[in-house]
Design goal:
457 residues, mainly alpha, 70% helix, binds protoporphyrin IX containing FE, signal, YTP1_C, transmembrane helix, membrane
Length: 457
C-alpha cells in the first residue's frame, strides 16, 4: 500500500513544485495605467492553453475514459502537463494587472479535483485491489471526471470576467442571474442532445419520460427563484417579474410532473420555456441595444419551446421501458440507423434532423442570455457595434459550441468499446489497423464491464 501510495503521490509533488512561489503580487487597488495596460503574451498564452485543455482536451479525454478507449490515459496525461504549464503562465504574466478575484481562488480550489483525478487515475493503472477497492475508485474517478467539463466551463467564465473586470460591487447580482441561468439553458440543451443521440437506452431503462425529469428540475428551480429574487423593501418591476417567473416554474413544473407520470410525453415544459422566452423578450432595458438582444434571446427561447412541442407531439415516440438492463455496452446508443430506427421516429432522417432544433436553440439562447448583462452591453455599445452583429457573433459561438457537443457525443458512440458495436451496426468491418479506436474483442462486449484501459493489447 505505502509503496503504491508514494508512487501515486509523486506527480502531485511535482505539480506543486511546478507552481512557482514567485507569483506576481496581488492588488487591492489598480492605477489607471495598470488596468489599461495591454494583456501580455504570457497571459494570452495562458488563456489559449487553458481554454484548449479545459474546453477541448479534458472533455475529449473524459469521453474516451467513458468509452474505455486506450487513448484516455495518454490524452489526460498531456492535459495535466499542459494545465500545469498554464498555471505557471497564469502566475507569471506581466502587463495588465487585475484585482484579486474569484478566478485565482477557483484556480486553487481546482487543485483538489486535479490531485484527486491524477491519484485515482494512477491507482487505476496499477490494477491492484481489483476485487475490493478498485471498483469504488473507478466510480469516484468517473464522478470527478464528469465534473471536469463543468469545472472548466466555470473557470473559463471566471477568467473572462477577470479580463474585463466585470461583476464587482452592484453588478454581482446581475452577473449571477445571467451566468447561472444562461449556463443552465446550455446544460439543458446539452443533456437534451445527449439523451437524443446516445441516451435513449438510459431513458427507457429509467422508465420515465424525459419531460418527467424536466418538470422536476423546473419545479425545484422555481421554488428557489420564488424566494430569492426580491431584495430590499420595495418591489421593483424586475423583482416582480423574476419572482413570478419562479412561481410560473413551480406551478407549471407541478403540472408537468403530473402529466408526464407513467412514462407519458408532455408539452408542459415546452410551454414553460415559451412563456419564459416571452417574458424575456418583453423585458424593457436601459439601452436600445440591450432591449434588442433580450428580445432575440426571448424569441430564441420561444422557438426552442415550439420546436420541442413539435418534437414531443409528432416526431419522437413514447420511450417504451426496456425489459432488461443490458449495461451500456449495447448498440442502442450508437448513432447508426439500425440502432435507432427501431426505437425512434417513424419520420426517419427528417425527424432525426429536426430533433436537433430544440437542443441547439437552447444552447444558443443560453449563450445570448449570458452575453446580455449591462456591463457587457455597455462595452458593446461603446464599441459602436449594433445588436445585429452582436447577436450573430453569439450564434456563431453557439454553432461552435454545439459542434463540440455533438462531436463529443459522436466520439463516445464510436470509440473504445463502442467502436466495435458501431462498426457492426454500420455493416462495415473497420480497418483492422485503425489506430484511432481501441477495440475490444467482440466476446467482451456483452461481458462484465471490462476495465481495460491501456491493457487491451
Ligand atoms: C480553465 C482553466 C484555467 C485555469 C485553471 C486558470 C488558472 C489561473 C491561475 C492559477 C492564475 C493565477 C491567479 C493568481 O495570480 O492568483 C490565472 C490568472 C489569470 N487567468 Fe486563468 N485559468 C484558466 C483559464 C483562463 C481563461 C479561459 C482566461 C481568460 C479568458 C483566463 C484569464 C486569466 C487572467 C486575466 C489572469 C490574471 C489574473 C491576475 O493577474 O490576477 N484564465 N489563471
Ligand atoms: C493521467 C491521468 C489519468 C489516468 C491514469 C486515468 C486512468 C483511467 C483508467 C485506467 C480508467 C478505466 C477505469 C476502469 O474501468 O478500469 C479511467 C476511466 C475514466 N476516466 Fe480517467 N484517468 C486519468 C485522468 C482522467 C481525467 C483528467 C478525467 C476527467 C476529465 C478522467 C475521466 C475518466 C472517466 C469519466 C472514466 C470512466 C469512469 C466510469 O466509467 O465511471 N480521467 N481513467
Amino acid at each position: 500500500m505505502s509503496r503504491h501510495t508514494s508512487v501515486a503521490c509523486m506527480p502531485l509533488l511535482l505539480l506543486a513544485l511546478a507552481i512557482p512561489a514567485s507569483a506576481h503580487e496581488h492588488h487591492n487597488e489598480l492605477s489607471e495605467e495598470q488596468a489599461a495596460a495591454p494583456i501580455d503574451t504570457i497571459l494570452w498564452l495562458h488563456i489559449f492553453v487553458q481554454t484548449a485543455v479545459w474546453g477541448v482536451l479534458f472533455p475529449t479525454g473524459m469521453v474516451l475514459g467513458l468509452s474505455r478507449s486506450r487513448w484516455h490515459v495518454p490524452l489526460q496525461s498531456v492535459g495535466f502537463a499542459l494545465t500545469a504549464a498554464g498555471y505557471v503562465l497564469g502566475h507569471s504574466h506581466k502587463g495588465r494587472a487585475f484585482l484579486a478575484g474569484i478566478h485565482g481562488t477557483m484556480a486553487n480550489v481546482m487543485f483538489i479535483p486535479i490531485a484527486l483525478q491524477l491519484t485515482l487515475g494512477i491507482y487505476l493503472k496499477l490494477h491492484i485491489h481489483e476485487r475490493s477497492l478498485r471498483p469504488w475508485a473507478v466510480r469516484l474517478h468517473g464522478v470527478v471526471g464528469k465534473a471536469y467539463p463543468i469545472l472548466g466551463w466555470t473557470q473559463m467564465l471566471f477568467g473572462a470576467i477577470t479580463v474585463r473586470g466585470y461583476c464587482r460591487g452592484d453588478n454581482l447580482g446581475q452577473c449571477l442571474a445571467h451566468y447561472i441561468m444562461g449556463s443552465g439553458f446550455i446544460a439543458y440543451g446539452t443533456i437534451m442532445a445527449i439523451l437524443l443521440l446516445v441516451g435513449e437506452a438510459w431513458i427507457r431503462r429509467s422508465g420515465r419520460s424525459p419531460e418527467w425529469w424536466d418538470s422536476w428540475v423546473i419545479m425545484l428551480w422555481g421554488i428557489v427563484n420564488t424566494f430569492t429574487e426580491h431584495r430590499g423593501a420595495v418591489w421593483s418591476v424586475k423583482d416582480m417579474q423574476h419572482t413570478i417567473l419562479g412561481v410560473l416554474w413551480w406551478t407549471g413544473g407541478a403540472l408537468g410532473v403530473f402529466l408526464s407520470r407513467n412514462n407519458q410525453r408532455s408539452v408542459v415544459p415546452s410551454l414553460i420555456i415559451i412563456l419564459t422566452g416571452w417574458a424575456m423578450s418583453e423585458h424593457a432595458q436601459a439601452l436600445m441595444l440591450s432591449t434588442k438582444v433580450h428580445a432575440m434571446f426571448g424569441h430564441t427561447l420561444m422557438l426552442a419551446g415550439l420546436t420541442r412541442i413539435v418534437e414531443v407531439s409528432f416526431i419522437a415516440p413514447k420511450y417504451a421501458p426496456l425489459e432488461v438492463s443490458d449495461g451500456d455496452s449495447h448498440s442502442d446508443h450508437t448513432l447508426t440507423d439500425t440502432g435507432r430506427e427501431e426505437m425512434s421516429t417513424g419520420f426517419g432522417a427528417a425527424g432525426r434532423a429536426f430533433r436537433h432544433l430544440p437542443s441547439f436553440l437552447l444552447v444558443a439562447a443560453g449563450l445570448l442570455f449570458m452575453s446580455a448583462t449591462d456591463e457587457e452591453l455597455d462595452f458593446v455599445h461603446d464599441l459602436d457595434m449594433d445588436h445585429v452583429t452582436y447577436v450573430l457573433i453569439m450564434f456563431s459561438v453557439a454553432f461552435l459550441l454545439y459542434t463540440l457537443i455533438v462531436t463529443l457525443i459522436n466520439l463516445y458512440a464510436t470509440s473504445g468499446r463502442n467502436a466495435i458495436a458501431a462498426a457492426a451496426d454500420n455493416g462495415i468491418e473497420m480497418a483492422p489497423a485503425s489506430k484511432w479506436y481501441a477495440r475490444v474483442p467482440v466476446a467482451d462486449v456483452d461481458a462484465e464491464p471490462a476495465h481495460v484501459i491501456g491493457d487491451d493489447e
